Give the backbone structure.
Amino acid sequence: AKKVTPPSLIARKESGHRITALTAYDYGTARLIDEAGIDCILVGDSLGMVVLGYEDTLSVTIEDMLHHARAVRRGVRRALLVVDMPFGSYHVSTEDTLRNGIRLLKEAGAEAVKVEGGMDQVENVRALTAAQIPVFGHIGLTPQSVLRTGGYRVQGRSHAAALALREDALALQEAGAVAVVLEGIPREVAASITARLRIPTIGIGAGPDCDGQILVFQDLADLSFRPSPKFVRVFSPARTLLRAGLEEFRVAVENGTFPADSESYHMPSGVPVDVLT
Ligand code: KIV
Ligand code: NA
C-alpha cells in the first residue's frame, strides 16, 4: 500500500476517489485504523474531550498533543499523519506558531498540522507552508471558538454566512493549505465549497458531497460518552461489546470460573509438589 501524501490527496480529488479519515490518540487504535486502509489519521484536539474528559478542547496543550501524536506515530505506516495545533499554540504570534508547528513535526512525526479558522489564519498558513509544513484548514463549526460562539452550532446557514465560508476556504487554499476540514455546515454549502476548491475538502457533519469524510474514532465506536450529533454513525458498537465482556469478567472471577485450569501454569511433571509445603 502506497504512503499517503498531500499531493496524493489532491490527486484523489482529481480522480474522484473519496478520501477517508479518522482520529486516533494512541498506538493500538492508530494501528487498527492504518491497517483498515484509512487514508488520514488525525490526532485531533478532540483528545481533550474523548480521552482526557475535559468539557471542551480549550485546555489541551502542545505537550498533550506531542505525547499522543508520538504514540500514534508508532502505529502508522501508510496513512498521512495530521496533528491538530491546540488552542493557544497558534494565536500568539507567527513565530510562536512556527515553533509549535515545527515541534509537532520534529518531536512527534506529524506530516501535516491543522488549524481552525479562515481569513484570520491566512498568515499562519502562509508561514507554516513557507516553512515546509503542510497545513490542513478547518472551518465551519470550530470547537476552539466555543467561548465566543457560546455553543456548538451548525454554521453557514444564511446566504451571507455561506458566502463568507466559501471565501474562507478559498483564502486558505491561496495561502497554501493542502486540504480543508468542513465541520457542521449545510450539505449545500459544503458542496459549493468542494466544487470551487482545487484542494480536497474533508467533511464532518457537512454532508456527502465533500471529497472525503472524517469521524472521531470514539463516535464511530460508540465510546464517546456524550450525546451524539446527528452526523454520527456508529460503525463499530464497541461500547455494548465491551460492557458485556466486562460484566462477564466480573461474574467469572466472582464465581471462580476464571481462570480455568487450562488458563493456569503447572509445575513440570516429576517435580514433587510437596516441596512447596
Ligand atoms: O479534533 C478533532 O477530532 C477534529 C475533527 C473532528 C476534524 O478536529
Ligand atoms: Na480538532
